[in-house]
Specification:
Chain A is an all-beta fold. In chain A, about 0% of the residues lie in helices and about 55% in strands. Classes of the chains: A mainly beta, B mainly beta.
Amino acid sequence: DTAVSQTPKYLVTQMGNDKSIKCEQNLGHDTMYWYKQDSKKFLKIMFSYNNKELIINETVPNRFSPKSPDKAHLNLHINSLELGDSAVYFCASSRLGESSTDTQYFGPGTRLTVL
Amino acid sequence: RKEVEQDPGPFNVPEGATVAFNCTYSNSASQSFFWYRQDCRKEPKLLMSVYSSGNEDGRFTAQLNRASQYISLLIRDSKLSDSATYLCVVNPRGGGSNYKLTFGKGTLLTVNP
């Protein structure tokens, strides 16, 4: 069984379009995250949600809007796509208990190409 | 100074070699430390957590020096399957609702036959 899944795996679209990426985890975790990995392979956190509530927003443009319908899902909607949005987007989840050592489990990534 | 800095790499080593990666972090209040591994075009996966006392998992040894804000990973008897990018990861804020991970840029290791 896939622990953290994302769809689609590949997304190719034109500048200016709006697109969504979906993420689901079946680990029973409380917290989910979105990361962006750019062409230089640098992995940066964008958002994190705990029990459907936003807890971290790392100065991401307003064109990016995460939505968490329940704690097992965290979708990412992107408006007015730009060339610089081309990257691999990873969803992740963790238990988030009292400990700061909770492991994050990553989805397989969505490779977004904006033309 | 960047939050997490790693050896630039890449490292090319023969099978059986011992290789060490280093990492420094800027926030002295950082709470937890990890090494993740990322294969080409795949997602990052936890390799091991790093504890103050140092810890070992088979051929892998991780060490933490809080005074120097320095983390290391040692791989002994390298295998071809160890070829990957190794990411140094730090949680700069602690537990609870401020939990987040900061990733280094990674060091690419290629183990050659």
